[in-house]
Design a protein that fits this description.
heterodimer, A: about 90 residues, alpha+beta, Ubiquitin-like (UB roll), five-stranded mixed beta sheet, about 25% strand, globular, B: about 350 residues, alpha/beta, Rossmann fold, 3 domains, four-stranded mixed beta sheet, 13 strands, binds zinc ion
Amino acid sequence: MSIEVSIPTPLRNLTNNQDTVQVSGNNISEVIEQLDVQYPGIKERLADEQGNLRRFVNIYVNGEDVRFMQDKATAVKDGDEVSIVPAVAGG
Amino acid sequence: MSEPYFSSLKCRECGRLYPKKAVHVCEYDFGPLEADYDYERIKSVLTRALIQSREKSMWRYRELLPIDGEPTVGLQVGFTPLVKADRLAKALGVKEIYVKNDTVNYPTLSFKDRVVSVALSRAKELGLKTVACASTGNLANSVAANAAAAGLDSYVLIPADLEQSKVLNSLVYGTKVIGIHGAYDQVNRLCSEIAGKYGWGFVNVNLRPYYAEGSKSMGFEIMEQLGWEIPTHTVVCMASGSLLTKIYKAYHEFIKIGLVPESKFTVHGAQATGCNPISLARKSGTDLIKPQPKPNTIANPWPSALRRTDIMRCGPWSRRVAGRRMRRMRRSLRASSCWPRRRVFLPRQRAV
Ligand SMILES: [Zn+2]
């Protein structure tokens, strides 16, 4: 078992065009670190030098926005679904 | 054809340039892409006289809208009345107020016709055959009607539990309505997956850089209708925040190309108390905007689709308007002979 991460289109050139990938980790920071080990370069797209999520990057754990939980420290466990989504404004 | 005045798409975060395709986010930081123009060249051709010689529609400012050639969709949109509302000014105790009545836009009676006609004109230039949107109201109607007129296939994605009656208007235009089960992130992902896989143009997703620019036309018209000047105060209903930022941009563009004199102005955003995520964020000093899943207001937003924008950056503040006050304001507006769904109050001397 591991965590399933959905990759949005702008990042798929880093994941060999895979739209979902499997990683392990106990929180969002670790998931991002693990992603970067498997797909080098992905971390700097998602987080700044201090490791904070970039302004326009949204990460959801089982449909919940991590910014309204513990942000990059939000805990994840095996079987969770993490999705990375560019911000989209309403209409 | 000569070189277009609209040069490229530019990331608002890092400034990287992108080709003028159906893309909306920067690959490096997910920053939103925005249309960039050759203002020097526009300045050399666009004069008040040229604008005034053209049809009374939003397209009289076409050099400042993100299309390459002539517009093809929504040619009649815009140039709605700017109504001087003396009785309203008196009731509110200010010297002079104007109301921009965008409820008389063709064909679907809302300001969405502006943004949609730019998005669809660009969609045709890009060779897209199918356009779509995720919406529950005005936007769906506008996409359905304008797509039908333009001969484009259209789809409207709505929450699966939305009442049928809300989309009846859109169905009349022959659009295909699809109910979606899922949370915000899933709907959002679905839209960009479909856009990527089938080459559809989602007006508020991959066509957003074009779509959003359409809102500027309301600002251009206000300045021209006031006799080529910027109102001291502009009050804009907040909705997704896009209209407010684009009116602000429009004012700056006219200053930049010398169509209006530079002056001090403020753009204010108004939100109903029952659904005021931007106002709340502003008050708590954060730029983190929390969606309100259960709005309680007579206004008609889709708050779950609201996300961080750069509203905070452009300086205006937002003010909440309670339901009772909003009803009272609507009554005053009706009394002054116009009742816009999109309220733009334009007091020129004092803030309301
Ligand atoms: Zn960027």
